[in-house]
Write a structure and sequence with these properties.
Thiolase-like, acyltransferase, 356 residues, 21% strand, Peroxisomal Thiolase, Chain A, domain 1, five-stranded mixed β-sheet, 11 helices
C-alpha cells in the first residue's frame, strides 16, 4: 500500500491592525530616506506592525484558529490537529518554546508542540517536517504556523538597513493525509544550510556565545544586523538552485510552474529568482508591497492572500522558495490547495491572556 501524501486542507492568517506606510515609518523613526526610495529599492509600500502588547504567540494563535476554520469549511466538519509546529525567530520567551502555549490557547491539550527556527526559511523547514510525519503515518493533522514580531523583538527602528524591510504577522496551514494527485498535495522539497556565513545576517548578542552583560556589547548588538548586498546575492543563488532541485524531483520544468510563491523579502530578489528560473511575472504571487518581510510568516501569508483573492486555481502546479539567516534555504512543490481563508471572519490577534 503506497504511503499517503500530505495535503494542505486549511489556510489562515493574522496581521496586526496597525498599518504603517513608508512615509509614516520614515517620519516616526527619523530615517534618512524617503518613502519612494524604499518602494523602489524593496517593493514595500507599507507593513503591519504589532504594538508592544501583541506577541508572536498572539498572532500565531489567531492564524492557527483561522486555518482550522478554513479546514472545517472545506471538510464540512472540524479537523483537530494532533501536532503543532511553530516556525519563528521571535518566540515569546527565550525559554520555553512558544508552540506549547499556542496549542494550549487553541484548546489542544496534551498535543505535542515545538518551535522550529530556520529564520525566514523556517516555514519551509516546518512544512517538510510536517509532511514527513504525515507520510510516515505518525500524525494525521499537523498544524504548521509561521509567526513573527520582528519590529518589536529584533529590529532597531532607527536602522535604515533593516527597519524599512520588516513587518509582523502570522500564517498557518493544516495538513491531512491524501493522495499526490489532489489539490493541496505536497510533492517534493529541497533544503540546505551554510553555517560558514552566519555573520551575513544575525543578532550578535543575547545568546550563549555573547550573553547579556558581556563586556564591550552595546544596545545595537542585540538588534538584527545584515550585510544587504551579500545577502541579496546568496538569496538569489540559493533559492534558484533549491527551486531547480525541487522541480527536478517533481519531474517538472520551469515551464510547468503555474504559480510561484517566494519568501517575501525584497521584490528585486523575487524578480531576479523568477527571471533565472524562467517563470513569468504573471505567475508570481505575493503581498510584499502591503505587508513587508514577515520572515517565517511570509510564505503562508502569501499563500493565504493568493487563495483569498482566487488568483490561483486549485490544483495548479505551484513552487515555493525561501531563504533566511543561518544561512538556510529551501523550496517545495505542491498542487495549489482548494482551501480558502474565511474572509468574512477577520482574525486579528488577541493579547496574551485571551480565552482560547
Amino acid at each position: 500500500m503506497p504511503m499517503p501524501a500530505a495535503v494542505l486542507c486549511g489556510l489562515g492568517s493574522s496581521l496586526p491592525k496597525r498599518v504603517v506606510p513608508n512615509s509614516r515609518l520614515v517620519e516616526e523613526n527619523g530615517l534618512a530616506t524617503d518613502s519612494e526610495w524604499i518602494l523602489r529599492r524593496t517593493g514595500i509600500a507599507a507593513r503591519h506592525m504589532a504594538d508592544p502588547r501583541t506577541s508572536t504567540g498572539d498572532l500565531a494563535t489567531a492564524a492557527g484558529r483561522a486555518a482550522l476554520d478554513s479546514a472545517r469549511n472545506l471538510a464540512g466538519s472540524p479537523l483537530v490537529p494532533d501536532i503543532l509546529l511553530l516556525a519563528t525567530t521571535t518566540p515569546d520567551h527565550r525559554c520555553p518554546a512558544t508552540a506549547p502555549e499556542v496549542a494550549h490557547r487553541m484548546g489542544l491539550e496534551a498535543v505535542p508542540a515545538l518551535d522550529v527556527n530556520a529564520a525566514c526559511a523556517g516555514f519551509l523547514y516546518a512544512l517538510t517536517l510536517a509532511k514527513g510525519l504525515v507520510t510516515a503515518g505518525l500524525y494525521t493533522h499537523p498544524l504548521v504556523i509561521g509567526a513573527e514580531t520582528y519590529t518589536t523583538a529584533l529590529v532597531d527602528p532607527h536602522d535604515r538597513d533593516t527597519a524599512i524591510l520588516f513587518g509582523d504577522g502570522a500564517g498557518a496551514i493544516l495538513l491531512r493525509p491524501g493522495t499526490a494527485s489532489q489539490p493541496g498535495a505536497l510533492l517534493a522539497e529541497d533544503l540546505g544550510t551554510d553555517g560558514s556565513r552566519t555573520g551575513l545576517v544575525r543578532v550578535p548578542a543575547g545568546g550563549s556565545r555573547t550573553p547579556f552583560g558581556s563586556p564591550g556589547t552595546t544596545r545595537k548588538d542585540f538588534y538584527l544586523v545584515m550585510n544587504g548586498k551579500a545577502v541579496y546575492a546568496q538569496a538569489v543563488r540559493r533559492i534558484t538552485a533549491s527551486a531547480l532541485a525541487a522541480l527536478d524531483r517533481t519531474r517538472w520544468s520551469a515551464d510547468d510552474v503555474e504559480a510561484f510563491v517566494s519568501h517575501q523579502a525584497n521584490q528585486r530578489i523575487i524578480d531576479d529568482v523568477a527571471g533565472r528560473l524562467g517563470v513569468p511575472a504573471a505567475r508570481c504571487h505575493g503581498n510584499l508591497r502591503h505587508v513587508g518581510n514577515t520572515a517565517a510568516a511570509s510564505i503562508p501569508l502569501a499563500l493565504a492572500d493568493a487563495a483569498e483573492r482566487n488568483l490561483v486555481r486549485p490544483g495548479a502546479r505551484t513552487l515555493l522558495g525561501g531563504f533566511g539567516a543561518g544561512l538556510a534555504w529551501g523550496a517545495h512543490t505542491l498542487h495549489f490547495p482548494e482551501a480558502r481563508p474565511l474572509t468574512r471572519s477577520p482574525h486579528h490577534a488577541d493579547h496574551q491572556g485571551a480565552a482560547p
